[in-house]
Amino acid sequence: MNNKFIIAIDLGGTKIKASLFNFRLQSKAEKIFTTNKFKDKRVLIQGIVDIIDGLIEENGLSKKNILGVGLGMPGPVDSEKGKVYFLPNICGWKNVFLSRILKNKLKLSVFLDNDAKLMALAEYNFGSAKFSKNALCITLGTGVGGGLILNGRLYRGQDNAAGEIGHLPINLSGPICACGSKACLETYVGNKRILALAKTVFQRDISLEELSQKARQGDHKAISVWEKIGECLGVALSAAVNLLNLDCVVIGGGVAQAGVVLFKEIKKTVYARSMLVQGKRVKILKAGLGNRAGAIGAGILVKERLGI
Amino acid sequence: MNNKFIIAIDLGGTKIKASLFNFRLQSKAEKIFTTNKFKDKRVLIQGIVDIIDGLIEENGLSKKNILGVGLGMPGPVDSEKGKVYFLPNICGWKNVFLSRILKNKLKLSVFLDNDAKLMALAEYNFGSAKFSKNALCITLGTGVGGGLILNGRLYRGQDNAAGEIGHLPINLSGPICACGSKACLETYVGNKRILALAKTVFQRDISLEELSQKARQGDHKAISVWEKIGECLGVALSAAVNLLNLDCVVIGGGVAQAGVVLFKEIKKTVYARSMLVQGKRVKILKAGLGNRAGAIGAGILVKERLGI
């Protein structure tokens, strides 16, 4: 298997990352493109094809060396059928059989799944959830996604739609959410909401990076913002902990970089709001694989589907 | 197997029900006792032994005819070890290895589990969740319990403590709960809370039965109470639905008797607060086995453990 490779595509709201993995899922090469120029669906699909062809060629390989391609999609998908239902942050995608389209163009095996599910798969196999049997992995960003490992396997639910921790209501009433409901966790801790809260506190625009840095430096205003965010996250996580008796919760995504202040408040709230047995069991951990998790998860998906 | 039987014990807060099942889990005889006279732990254990001995004798059987005994306990247990951690509504129980104690006294195989988990097992095998792969069964009473069927199996979590839908927070802040947390579903929809709410609305004490009856007759005040309860239940259930992409939610326990008004409001809220795919999938159903679910579940447990 020394001359066999896997290609993983991590499709984000603003960029596409393509990784060339060896059989052990060690990264051998990487290419990143912004998605700005791929507004049209057909152009974006051709962009993915070109990236993959480029990655193969630039590394002196041919298609015979590629076991398969795995894609992480930022939206709901039917992983078995390779179908993308829609992409909340990229227009023009509705019920696209992307695996089949790419397979025809590339003449390679192509598999896809939701990116938060792939992150969970990666953290369970190689990251912070490695020694866990029942874990929730949550990604914090513009949206709040999640993936569940239950009894040592990715739990999908009937429509592959399980894991939506971002859409747990944390109040009977509250802000309207993009999903159509209200008071969802995402409406309290999504990036936009954090920036809006920070603007109110600082009376000026402030970036997430600056807000995190200020908190690390002990700025009380910045700390107060992260404490509020941490409390909301803690309440939603305690719901999952009480319902599922989880071993661990793994927190990833940009906001997880806020560091000690955020994690301290999350932990405090989860332990205060969980039942005795459940609270004693659960560990709250930072994601171990950073922004590589999606690509690694896509690589695992390819190996799983090919049974290798 | 025609002369082989299973005994199921359903231990409630106020009574013990013992059922004699044939091999197909059809009820052949039943005995009910109140637990008032069993305040002391040792007396209660002896009471269980006496009920079982009585049931065997009165039906002209001997212990050779009994495959095993299953017990449903109203509290957290270690089902594998046959250990009761504690019983919230019955004093004096802490870390009791009840299966072993009863096995020594009865010279029969004895297995136990939490009653809400056994209800889920029964509804999945013979009741409303029969055609479901992923289901949450919730019991409404003084406490609010739950059991989860995921991928066609009872999901326990690492400590057999999964399913605690009654302790999902439905607000960031709210009434203090017996579990030590606050704003748990149980603090909004437990029987005591319903009675208190009804007393405020009617300006007098009113029983749950009367409240249900009045609602069925179209009394606006009674309907308003059940609508409030239904909304709180709906919000907590939508959290479970979004997180687990459930096929169905089965609702049992005394309060489920409130009927159409309650179910209408629960459904309305679940569909309004769930995500598109999840909301479309999930069915909200009344429990199919009524108060027989716990006993039937205990019978299933015995069969599962004995591998028959």
Q: Quick recap of the structure?
A:
The structure is a homodimer of 308-residue chains. The first copy, chain A, has 308 residues and is of the alpha/beta class.
3D architecture notes:
- Two copies of one chain form a homodimer.
- The first copy, chain A, is of the alpha/beta class and 308 residues long.
- Chain A has two domains: 5-117 and 292-306, Nucleotidyltransferase, domain 5; 130-288, ATPase, nucleotide binding domain (Nucleotidyltransferase, domain 5), CATH 3.30.420.
- The first copy, chain A, has ten helices and 13 strands.
- In chain A, the strands form three sheets. Chain A has a five-stranded mixed β-sheet with strand order 3-2-1-4-8, sandwiched between helices.
- In chain A, helix 6 (208-216) crosses helix 7 (220-244) and helix 7 (220-244) crosses helix 8 (260-273).
- Chain A is globular, with a radius of gyration of 20 Å.
- Chain A starts with a strand and ends with a helix.
- Chains A and B meet through strand 10, helix 7 and helix 9 of A and strand 10, helix 7 and helix 9 of B.
List keywords for this structure.
10 helices; 40% helix; Nucleotidyltransferase, domain 5; alpha/beta; five-stranded mixed beta sheet; homodimer; 13 strands; 308 residues; 2 domains
Any chance you could write out the topology, listing elements then pairs?
Two copies of one chain form a homodimer.
Chain A: E1 5-11, E2 15-22, E3 27-34, H1 41-58, E4 66-73, E5 77-78, E6 83-86, E7 94-96, H2 98-106, E8 110-114, H3 115-126, E9 135-140, E10 144-150, E11 153-155, H4 185-189, H5 191-202, H6 208-216, H7 220-244, E12 248-252, H8 260-273, H9 276-281, E13 283-286, H10 293-306
Parallel strand pairs in A: 1-4, 4-8, 9-12, 12-13
Antiparallel strand pairs in A: 1-2, 2-3, 5-6, 6-7, 9-10, 10-11
